[in-house]
Structure formats: structure tokens, C-alpha cells
Amino acid sequence: MTEAQAGTKRLGHRSAWKSASISSRSLAGDDVWVLDVRSPGVRKSHREVSWKLAAPAEAKLSARQLAGLINAAKQFILSMTLDPPHGRKRWGPNTVVGHSVAMRVIVTWMAVEGVERFSSLTPADVDTFRTWLAGREGARRNGARIVPGTAIRYHALLKDLHRQRAKLGDALTFDPYPLETAPQAAGFRASNVEGIPFIPDPIAVDLLSKALLWVERYADTIIGALNVRRDARTKSMKRLPCRRAASAAVRAALTEAGFRGPGGERLDRAQIVLSIGDCLMDACFIVIAGFVGMRVSEILSIQEGAIEHRNHDGAQLTYLVGRLFKTSHALDGRAERWVAPPPVVRAVEVLECLCGPVRDATGRTELFLAPRALREARGTVVSGATMIFRVNAFARRVGVPMHAGKPWRFTTHQFRKTFARFVARRDRSNLLALSEHFKHVSVAMTAKSYVGSDFELHELVNEEGRAETAAALDRMLTGGALAGRLGERITAQGELFRGRAGSQVRQDYIAFVLRETDLRVHACDYGWCVFQGETARCGGEQSPNEAERSPSLCLSCANMVIDSKHVPYWRDRRQRNVALLPAASLLTRAALKEAIDQCDGVLRKLGLENESGSESAPLRRSGSGDRKGVSSGARKVDARRSATSAACGKGRTDHPGRGSTRSKEEPQSVVHDTSRRSRGDRSRR
């Protein structure tokens, strides 16, 4: 028996448990617990638990009986921090706060029902509580009922009260849900639970673009106005400690400076300047959350000097240093690094200037200190809940578009999911000017020199990448005419996947590809690259080589698929080359005609041969001429690959290191040779 277990057993039989420490500042017997919650952005109310429960008017228990029930609840929570059930982690400070709030609700319900002890609860009482909880109003007080995700906590506490019965003086004597888990008891089902959504593309792009505009264009003006306001107030207070005189001096100084805000408004009053300074901090938060993908606690932990440059094997990466709390066992979290694109570096610089006076006055080093904290003896870090309110206020101020006729309600975690989606996305044409920043982060996160270890964020990115690949494969297999070497193969062999009859076959095949391979579809303006390194003409190893790939090269590559989505690019390319023909030299004309022929071939295969017009030579008929520019060697490789693909789908395939044959039920391979690059094969090698 461990020391913690022995201590817990002793505490279960005597009142000695009241003298045990629940935190560095509170004992278990205290009426108010002050927990060691050190995550930035947490309000004071979320660090404390008050056990001073007033008996409801309809309560059937006396004050003494209620006090005994409260003590039993406190002893139970203490046992979960010292000696939880076998295989379970000890509750940390954040967990203690959340579960204590839920226990208060359970205790209050028992007082109203007249149940004096946990051991007095019956299965009928548990059913009554379950019904009462399902009808309880949610935290937002908008008439909506409590959601299953919240109800899980209450049911899990009842089950833990039973599991801890041997360590407590008062506990549940029976399993409240013998045939159900806590999620099942709460009605938690995949069909009725909505996850945290990502921000819709038009809204996310608009918000990030406008926040970036504030950070890059308006920040210097706003910081200048704040400095003028601060200097004028300081000088006035030194001459005459009078607030009215200081306000007049500030207004005079700002009027003389003539600053203009982002909307052209005059920054001539202290209140306006302070308000717009808060908005600049909000813009910095949005830029960091949107381009890095950090959690709110990690962003609010950023301190002065958080930008770090590292050079590894000639590759220089820029990181943003913060502290990761969620998966860390330490109360103060652990240091972590995230890739920082140029907009984030600029946002950190702005924050260092914006909150510099507050840090100097308070001695703190955090960057998200409230600018108005100079009025206090110590600085205050903006809370996570406040940040949600401020982000939504900033979105209203800059005029972010509506979603389905209503303003989109932002939460801080939505930015993390949206970041993962944008980084995983291969076709970033809808992201406009932001696409290069996300491309920079995507390349950096897959570089060998990357040192970040936020594995949950990587898994989010991989999950979004798989979803995008599934959508692209579904589009290819269900679409009409396709061009590109792989597109022609899919057109020839893909009848099995089309129509209502092929819907389930297509879904099974896509699931098989995602499960058994590391296949990823990479988008560009002119087509899809169903990347396979062994046949990539660009020389890429894990993804297409951006420096080498081009439309002409990709047309000769066995990985290329082009569909109707890419028609505008090929039309535009053809028109641009046709316009250059009259003034071109003989050598240049040959190159231009070759490019025009390539465009004609693509458009013909997509069923648009009549759209090319008569600006150049007429389009060839389908045949060997369509493959102009493709060497005979490349055609032989394509032929061999088609034969291999057919073998994968219809015959036996010996997997290296596996020694087994493919079952007849596995889907026919159309876009990927699974005999070469399955995850299982690589792990065995």
C-alpha cells in the first residue's frame, strides 16, 4: 500500500482529512478553497471554490445535515486528488474546480430531496436525479437545456463515488449505472453532439485579413497616440495632480498631434485612444491564434522576447515560444515552440510596444496585459472569457460578413481548428493574400529541422488533410471527363465508382486508401497531384517539389489529374500564349505553340474542344498527338504502372514483409498502388 493510499484510508475514518492540503494555500476543511490554477487567462472565480452553501428555501435538510453532506463531498474530492481509482490520474487544480462546482449542484439537489447521506441514495433517487438533470437549464440561461457533454461530469461523479466507497466515510453503496458508462447515461451520442466548428472560410479570411491590416498598417499610429496620451498625462500630473487638468492636457496634445484611426476618425480623446488600443491588442490575438494555432492559455502565456530564431543545417526557422498547459503535469506548464510566420512576428513586436509601459510599471513580463492596468498596483492578464467577448466585438467593429444572416459567434478554440484546416489544405486559392503565410507554416511544420512538439495540433492538421484528400478523391471518382495521365486512367477504370450503385463502393475504396496508405492529394491552380514519390517527375520525396513543378512537367507526370475546376486556368494560359504569338521570334513561337497544344489537349479531354477558337492551329483529334511532349520512356512507365494497378485490384499482390494475398473484397486500386506504400509495410521495414 502506498503512502497516499494509507493516508486516504486513515482520512476515511476520522476527521483528520480536514487538515490535509487541497492546495498550497488551502486545507480540505476550509470553507473556501484557493486552488493552484496557474494557467494564464483564468479568472479569480475559476481559481476558487466556495463551500458556503445556503440551504434552499425548499430544502428538507437542517443546516447541520447539509454541513455533513458538504463535508462528505469535500472528502470525496480530496480522495480523488490523493488516491484515485486504479489506473486513473489524480485530479489537477483545474479538474478540482470543475468537479467541485458539479458536486455543489448534486449536494443542493440532495438537500431539496431530503437525502442526508450519499449512502442513503437509492436507484430510484438516481433515476430521479437523472431526469431532473436532463431538464436543467444550461449555463447561458437562454432557455436551452443542459447539453450531454456537460451532463457527463455529473454522472461520472456518481460512478466515482461508488468506486471510492472503501476510502470514504460516506459514499454511494451501489453502481448507479451498472449497464452504462457516464457518457451513455448522459445521452451522449455522436449524432446529437456537435464538435467545436471551424470558422467558415469567407468569415475567417475576412477577419484575419482585417486583423492583419490593423497589425501591419495601423499599429504605429495607434501606439503613437497612446504614447502621446501617456506622456501628456504624466507631465500634467507632475505639475498639478488634478485629473480634470490632466484630461484637458491629454486632449490638447492629441488634437495637436492629429492622429487618425483606421476608419479615419480623429484620435483626440483619451477614451477613444484607449479603446482603439484595446482593439489593436485584439487584432494581435487574432493574428497569433489564426496563423499559429495555439490555445488561448498558450497565447496568453507569451512573454517579452518570445520570438526565437533557429538555424539548423542551413534552414532558418522562426518560432514563437510559449507555455503548454493542457498535456503537462507541471502546474506552470512546459515551454513549447510553434512556427511563427512574419505576421505573427510583427504581432509580437506590436504587443511588446503596446504593453511596454504596463510591464515597466508592474514588473510583469506577459504581453497580454490590459493597457488600463496602469491604474492598478499590479498588472492583469486578459482572461480567456474576456478574450472571447473582445474578439466578437472586434469582428463587429471591422464589419465581418454575416453567416446565414446572423453574426458568427467566435470562440478562441475555433481559431485552432481553422488553422489546422488551412495548413492542411492543398488548394489555398480561396485564402487570397493569406495563402502564402499558411504555405510557409505548412512547409516549416514538415521540415526536418522543426522542433515543435504540440502533437495534438499535428494530429488536427493530419485529420484535416485526410478529410481534404477524401473530398478530392470523391470528386475525381464521381466527376465527368478528366485530363492528365492519372485522370485518363481514372476515366477509363472508374465506371465502377459512379452512379448510385457505385456510391458504397466508392466510399469503401476511399476509406481503404486513407486507412492503408499515406496518400495525399496536393492541389494547385492547374490540377490535382495524387502524390506518389516513385513516379513524381518533379523529384519530390514527401510532397510535390514546388521549385520544379510546372504545368508542362506535370502534364507528363503519372500523378496528375485535371478536372472541370481547373478549366479557367487552362483557358487563360492558352489565351496568354496566343496573344504573344504575333510578336514572338521563331524559337519563341515554337515554345508558345507547344504550350498552346498542351492547353488544347487538356480542354479537349475535358470536352471543351470547340472553345479554343481559331487564334492558332486547330485542335488535333484525340490520338497520339495529344501526348506531345511526353517521352516514350514516360509512356512505358505509365503502361507498366497501369498494369501494376490492375494487378492490385484484380489479382494477387504479395506485400513486402507480409507474405499474404489480397482478399477479393478489397476495392480495386485506381489512384494509388497500395502494394508499394502501405503504412504497415513501412513500419515492418
Topology:
Elements: H1 3-11, E1 32-34, E2 48-50, H2 63-82, H3 93-113, H4 123-134, H5 148-163, H6 182-185, H7 201-239, H8 243-257, H9 270-292, H10 296-300, E3 307-312, E4 315-324, E5 334-339, H11 342-354, H12 356-362, H13 384-398, H14 412-424, H15 435-445, H16 455-478, H17 485-493, H18 503-516, E6 521-524, E7 527-530, H19 551-555, E8 560-561, H20 567-580, H21 586-605, H22 632-650, H23 679-684
Q: Round the Cα radius of gyration to an integer and report it.
A: 32 Å
- Compute the separation of the termini in Å: 44 Å
What percentage of amino acids are in beta strands? 5-15%
Largest sheet: 3 strands, antiparallel
**Morphology call:** flat
Given helix and strand content, the structural type is mainly alpha
**Number of helical segments with 4 or more residues:** 23
The count of domains is 4
Spatial strand arrangement across the major sheet: 3-4-5
Task: Tell me roughly what share of residues is in helical segments.
Answer: 40-55%
What does this structure look like?
Strands 3-4-5 form a three-stranded antiparallel β-sheet. 49% of the residues lie in helices and 6% in strands. The longest helix has 39 residues, at 201-239. Helix 9 (270-292) packs antiparallel against helix 11 (342-354), helix 16 runs antiparallel to helix 18 and helix 20 (567-580) runs antiparallel to helix 21. The protein starts with a helix and ends with a helix. The protein has four domains: 3-185, no CATH class; 201-214 and 278-438, Orthogonal Bundle (hpI Integrase, Chain A); 465-562 and 631-685, no CATH class; 574-630, no CATH class. The chain is mainly alpha-helical and 685 residues long. It is built from 23 helices and eight strands.
